[in-house]
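>> received
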Amino acid sequence: MVQSNAPASDAIRCPCWICRNNFFQPFTVVRDHLFLRGIDRSYNQWIFHGEDDPFQVNQSDDEDDGDDFGEYIDDVDEMLDDIRVGSFVEGATGLNSDGSDNDNAEPNVGTSRHHSFEHSDIFRLHASLLWTINDFPAYANLSGWSTKGKLACPVCTVDTDSTWLAYGHKYCYMGHRRWLAPKHPWRKNKRAFNGANEVQGHPAKLTAQAVLESLRMVSNVQFGKILPKRKRAPQELNWTKKSIFFDLPYWQDVELRHNLDIMYIEKNICDSVLSTLLSIVGKSKDTTNARRDLEHLELRKELHLCLDGDRCRMSLACYTLNHNERISFCEWVSQVTFPDGFVSNIAQCVNIREGKIIRMKSHDSHIFLQRLLSVVIGGFLRPNIKLALTELSTFFKELCARTLTYESLYRLQADIPIILCKLEMIFLPAYFDIMVYLAIHLPDEALLARPVQYRWMYPFERYLEKFKRYVRNKARPKSSIAEIQEKHVMDPASVPDEIYALACGPDKWAASYAGCIMNRIRFQTKDREGHRRTQNSGLVVRGEHQSNPIDLYGVLNDIIELRYMGWHKVYLFQCDWWDVSDKRKGIRVGDHLTSLNTSRTWYKDEPFALACQAQQVFYLKDISVAGNWYVVHKIKNRNVYNIPLVASVDDANDGAEFGDDDAF
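>> returned
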């Protein structure tokens, strides 16, 4: 079994109790290791040698909560498989980099010796550091710039706009008007912001020479826990040390040394918004100290604390929900369903009785901020607040897209200062911690480093979860048909088998299914979702109506398998299509959301669509309007990318221009 599932090379992972699947060895060496040393007793499932991962087996319908991350094929697996013998150094077991017991062998550290596939010569492979991928607390450890205090922003550095909150005992970071156009009217709006005009431009990025000069001021660095802590001199700014990466000769010239992790930023922004809307005790940014700071700064008198005898009364702000609204908010969230593998069961984080949502993980916050927030707030908040939060949701959704264009990134660069200024006019200063402030730099980094899928922490977090699981596991024209059949009789080689099978027609018996996986996407009928916490019946098909292209949205009722000669099969989806012809009563397309009226159906005489043409969507109840209106969200399967078509290298001689392609 191992040999039949081995890759093309003659080496496999050795599962002996010393190598422990860390080293690739020839088959003969693996046999000797297993005979002399014995197999690793904890290696019960041979997942590296052809046996299926037991954690990827689907749960039953009654236990399925939609958390199917085990089915995710992670890129880290492929990267680890590409790492060969020279990358492993196992000092604890006394092994060398090749997994042998020879103590005289030379270990490979930093560089690696490799054999060429075409020649027998040996060359030395060198590696360079492109950038680091880390969460924000680790940013300080790797860069040497402290991400706390007055100058917490590692991008703005000395030009970080911060204000000390005397009662909240922390800094807030605003000053987003600096990124607005010089003649923007908000620059002179004192009352809605901090009580002053904004005349400064956006901060300039430090040059490599300026960074090195400021690092020369850092001295007397002592690592470890030191009591009392060393106070930094004013000229040291927020530098705590000179990063060891600056020993690399090219590091000072790298434009993006450390990535701001969008996963971490989204998580904190989503938690801040939810806790403030729902007034969650201990997490809300709208507290008595925040109101005192507002009074201390002499801003927004309508939100100051009101004296009521010996007590102070805090009025309900426009951005917070009352008790009944919080209950309705949580009830809506608890009833939302998603496609399998799209997100975990968010309903487990909802406490309807207390009206709060807690303990959401990073990916839950990612989905809530981009997909749910703009829908659920429609029935509770004022239009200006709803618009600001919807634009914030759309910003992160577009920024996290798998295909980015320069045009979209330049637009996001111009949009994010306006969005944050709108939030400044709504929320208290205490809301604007460093996580909110960092959002303004994300489009700039995307212009330098391109899509975020290659620069965030999700792949590494998922792979750590994988390690934890291992530990826990001890209609056809008849004339055309006749023509094809006749052509097949005269010249069989000119007609492909698939075309001839279709021309002969399907078998009179057909099969019906309640679920299937098509193009790596799981579809299930509407009836099957009665006992499930997930939603897999929504779909959209690109079609035509009166010679105009149109998206046909619907719900899946049945899956039919047609069988043809030669064991060929065709799958059809039988659907109910929603009426998208009426722009007022059937579909409403807004700037950020699209709503469908599911009480109006369309094309009842044409319910079928080819399964391979269907794309999955899911529906959320639109509480901003009465009736059976649902907001539709299109989704893309993870690890599937829409790569634009570009001219090949062979076409270069034909005068093809590659520099005009604006897609990454």
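>> Residues 262-464 form one domain.
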